[in-house]
Amino acid sequence: MSICSDSLAALKALKAIRTTSPLVHKCQKALNDISIQHSVGLFWVPGRTVIRGNEIANGLTRGGIALRFLGPEPPLGVSRRDLQKKLSHWLVNQHGAQWRALGDTQRQA
């Protein structure tokens, strides 16, 4: 069985040993389950390459894009690392603001 994708990033994520993404982990598990009974290969192909069945996959994709998103917001994933960076930056700014608000008389180094 061959799985072809034009997303090199997705294929690298699936081949990674460690992942923090629940979606990638779920896909890895599904691939492992399939590979118990079938030989599975992941292949990168440049976009717009003619592959048998690709038009069907493109049609299904277009149909999925046309549907309204149902589920928790935001519909695009945000990585844990991005959230940690944002929170850390916010905390540093908050601490700095409180430190400056004390004035010169109440601060000690």
Any overview of this molecule?
The chain starts with a strand and ends in an 8-residue tail after the last helix. The chain is 54% helix and 7% strand. It has a two-stranded parallel sheet. It is elongated and about 75 Å long. The mean pLDDT is 82. The chain folds into 2 domains: 2-76, no CATH class; 78-109. Helix 1 crosses helix 2 (22-37). It is mainly alpha-helical and 109 residues long. It is built from 4 helices and 2 strands; from the N terminus they run E-H-H-E-H-H. It has helices at residues 8-15, 22-37, 54-66, 80-101; strands spanning 2-5, 41-44.
Provide key terms for this protein.
elongated, mainly alpha, 109 residues, 2 domains, 4 helices, 54% helix
Unreliable runs, pLDDT <50, ≥5 residues? none
Strand % is 5-15%
Principal-axis shape equals elongated
Q: What summary fits the major beta sheet? A: 2 strands, parallel
Global mean pLDDT: 82
Question: Which class do the helix and strand fractions yield?
Answer: mainly alpha
List the secondary-structure elements in sequence, H or E.
Answer: EHHEHH
Give helix % range. 40-55%
| N→C terminal distance | 65 Å
Number of strands: 2
Give the number of helices: 4
Q: Work out the count of structural domains.
A: 2
Rg of Cα set? 23 Å
Across the major sheet, the strand order is 1-2
Secondary-structure blueprint:
Blueprint: E1 2-5, H1 8-15, H2 22-37, E2 41-44, H3 54-66, H4 80-101
Parallel strand pairs: 1-2
Helix pairs in contact: 1-2
Q: How would you concisely characterize the structure shown here?
A:
This protein has 109 residues and is mainly α. Helix content is 54%, strand content 7%. It contains four helices and two strands.
